[in-house]
C-alpha cells in the first residue's frame, strides 16, 4: 500500500508539471500576441500622426527613433511565436541569436531613449535639440557597432544547443563573464531608475507647490508629469525582468525541469510591452 501511494503521488506530480508548463507557455504566447497586435497598431497610428504633423521638435526626433526600434522588435515576434507554438526552431542558429539580440537591444535602447526624454525635459529649450541629437546618435552607434556584434559573437557560444532549440541560453548565463555582465546591467538599470525617480518626483513636487492650485494650467508642470510616465513604464516593464534575473542567475543550476527558464522568458516578454507606449503617444498621454 505505501508503494502504491508513492507511485500515485509521483504520477500526479508528473501530470501537474506538463500542465504548469503548458499554462506558462500560454501566458508567454498571449503576451507576445498582445505586443504584436497593440504594438503594430500603435506604430501605424503614430506614423500616420507624425506624417500629418511633420514636426521637427525634440520629442518628435525621439518618437521617430522609438518607432524604428519598436518596428525591428515587432518583426522578430512572429519568429518567437512560431517557436513557442510549434515547440521547434526552424530558422537556423544565426536567426536564433539575432532574435535574442533584438529583444535585448530593444529593451536597453528603449530605456536609453526614456532616460533621454526625462533628462532633456529638465534642460532649457535652447539646449534640448543639440542634446537629443547627440544622445540619439550615441545610443545607435553603441548599439549597432558595439553591443550587437559582441552579442552575436559570444552569446550562445559557451555551450552547444540542438538546432531545433532556441533561446536556451541558461547554460551561458552560468559562466562567470556573463554573470558579471548581467549583474552590472541590473545594477545600472535599477540605480538609474531610482535616481531619476527621486529627481522627477522632487521636480514635480516643487512645481506643484509653485503653481498650486492651478497646476494643470501650466505647461511646465504637465511636461514633467508626463515624463514620469516613462519611469512608470520602466518600473512595470523592465524592472520585474531585472529583479527576477538576479534570482534566476543564482538558481538556474537547480532548474532541472526548465520552469525558471520559462518564467524568465515571460518576464523578458513583459519588457516588450513597452512598445504599447505608441498608443499612449497617440492618445496624448506622454507627448
From TrEMBL:
<feature type="transmembrane region" description="Helical">
    <location>
        <begin position="267"/>
        <end position="286"/>
    </location>
</feature>
<feature type="transmembrane region" description="Helical">
    <location>
        <begin position="135"/>
        <end position="155"/>
    </location>
</feature>
<keyword id="KW-1133">Transmembrane helix</keyword>
<feature type="transmembrane region" description="Helical">
    <location>
        <begin position="228"/>
        <end position="247"/>
    </location>
</feature>
<dbReference type="InterPro" id="IPR017452">
    <property type="entry name" value="GPCR_Rhodpsn_7TM"/>
</dbReference>
<keyword id="KW-0675">Receptor</keyword>
<dbReference type="GO" id="GO:0008142">
    <property type="term" value="F:oxysterol binding"/>
</dbReference>
<feature type="transmembrane region" description="Helical">
    <location>
        <begin position="58"/>
        <end position="81"/>
    </location>
</feature>
<feature type="transmembrane region" description="Helical">
    <location>
        <begin position="180"/>
        <end position="207"/>
    </location>
</feature>
<protein>
    <recommendedName>
        <fullName>G-protein coupled receptors family 1 profile domain-containing protein</fullName>
    </recommendedName>
</protein>
<keyword id="KW-0807">Transducer</keyword>
<dbReference type="GO" id="GO:0016020">
    <property type="term" value="C:membrane"/>
</dbReference>
<keyword id="KW-0472">Membrane</keyword>
<feature type="transmembrane region" description="Helical">
    <location>
        <begin position="24"/>
        <end position="46"/>
    </location>
</feature>
<dbReference type="InterPro" id="IPR000276">
    <property type="entry name" value="GPCR_Rhodpsn"/>
</dbReference>
<dbReference type="Pfam" id="PF00001">
    <property type="entry name" value="7tm_1"/>
</dbReference>
<feature type="transmembrane region" description="Helical">
    <location>
        <begin position="101"/>
        <end position="123"/>
    </location>
</feature>
<feature type="domain" description="G-protein coupled receptors family 1 profile">
    <location>
        <begin position="38"/>
        <end position="247"/>
    </location>
</feature>
<dbReference type="GO" id="GO:0004930">
    <property type="term" value="F:G protein-coupled receptor activity"/>
</dbReference>
<keyword id="KW-0812">Transmembrane</keyword>
<keyword id="KW-0297">G-protein coupled receptor</keyword>
<dbReference type="InterPro" id="IPR047160">
    <property type="entry name" value="GP183-like"/>
</dbReference>
